[in-house]
Amino acid sequence: MNKLSLTLLSTVALAASATAQFSPNFLLTYSQPENNTSGSGGTVLRHLFPNEISYLDFFTANCVTASAEKWLPRTASHTMAGDENGDGFYWNPNIYGKIDALLNNPLAATPVVGTANQRTVYWSVSQPLGNVISAGPFRPGDIARIVRQGFVDGQVDYFMKQEAFQLALGLPFATPIDIDAIAFQPNFGVWFSIDVDTPCLTACGPTLVQDGDVLCIPPAALMFGPGGQIAGVMPNSAVVVHNEAQMDFFTMNAQVSDRFGACINNVVDVEALEIDLFGPVMPFTTCTGGVLSVPTLLYACETGTGASLLTTQGGGQIHNTPCWPAGTPCGGGPTFGPQMGIRPASATVGAASHINAIASARVCRHVLEPQQHVVTAPGGAPAGFTGIDYASDFPLNVVLIDLAPAGIAPSFPAAPFSPTCFPDLYAPSLIIHAVVPGTWGSVPMIGIPPLWSGKILFQSIGLGAPVFELSTPAIMDIN
Ligand SMILES: [Ca+2]
Ligand SMILES: [Ca+2]
Ligand SMILES: [Ca+2]
Ligand SMILES: [Ca+2]
User: Backbone phi, then psi, for 386, in 5-degree steps?
Assistant: First the structure.
């Protein structure tokens, strides 16, 4: 028995646990800056950016309050990644460009089965991460995350590298690609879309792979690493399962309006993918005579402004969330955005965004974000001159303050604490800055002495769960 068949056997066994993880809730990103429906208690957390991940909870929230709540703020990314571009600032408002693909890998180890955190999910970027801190690059063609390796923080850790996609597509490594949608289940393989039409050499020979195509790398062509990541692929193994014309057909059938109320007839570009484990599975015979199991796919497309979400089920439909359809049917007016957690542009026009990345997930929400990320105060500043906003589902929260070194802040595993929220402690001296109640609020900033400069770090401990649960970390640059 060769190595590939052995790998396949083990993944079939693992697949049984995957269905338990499917959630009607989503981690997701939007293509444009948006505001969420809840308003996040008036805090800065209501402003969602294309390089931040939000959480949309249809299940534990009642439908009236379902809102996209910020889950991976930029400040948490730059604390995890450090001063990746070496400019002396942690703060990089354009980090990643946009997050254009998201993956909650069912094979990833998580402290609690069925949940995910900011260290377990993977994403893709549209602009490379700076290469000052991480030994490995984070390129638009990678699906990766930022972790601590041993005692070294800020390292890029891959689900699947650009080179593996290139190999599967029959492309030379010199041809960069941008992956702009990803989904994975061990029994269905890797499903993806690219951002720019590219001539490839797939399993079917020379093929112009289009940005609206949906491709699969079948399970038998994948080799897995010990953490459930893709350690290798068979060359030229990628298959176009739904080409752009087929995706246009699904979209036409779905009969969904865009933000202006016009009916969408094509995808232009497939921008987000997730496998719907509750949907039917269809067989697909490839050009080589192989048969693939094709799952129901949730997808978003570039034309899907107002943040609609569609499904391939039944030949193409608007996805039904547990609360409502994820788009307005043709003739019913614009798709506004609140159906997927964001506010419309006006009373008559929907939100500008299409959904840019999506992953089914269940997560804990505990987030910090300074109102002001960079402070220039050579003359000093009084206490409370700005604030650190927070979101927490815990009744009581202890906000810690610490100093961070230039470059990269060290983190420490919090286990057995924080099993569902952020899993690492960035404030080891445990100096208490404030104690605040839950949901949303703001903590006053400390005063800054004249001529002081440095990096100030905040992280909060939520109390009221069975064990302490940590917030995402935040760093302010003080000049
Ligand atoms: Ca920087
Ligand atoms: Ca990308
Ligand atoms: Ca695409
Ligand atoms: Ca995308």
Answer: -150, 180
Give the fold, CATH level 3, of 366-478: Immunoglobulin-like (2.60.40)
Partnered with residue 311 across adjacent β-strands are 298, 317
85-112 pLDDT tens trace: 999 999 999 999 999 999 999 999 999 9
For the stretch 23-68, pLDDT in tens is 999 999 999 999 999 999 999 999 999 999 999 999 888 898 899 9
Helix (H) / strand (E) element for 301: namely strand 296-301
Buried b (16+ CB within 10 A) or exposed e, 119-146: bbbbbbbbbbbbeebbeebbbbbbbbbb
Distance 100 CA to ligand 4 centre (A): 4
**Closest ligand to residue 31's CA:** 4
Residue extents of the structural domains in the chain:
3-31+98-360, 366-478
Rounded to the nearest angstrom, the distance between the alpha carbon of 406 and the centre of ligand 1 is 10
Average pLDDT, the chain: 95
441 CA distance to ligand 3 middle (Å) = 38
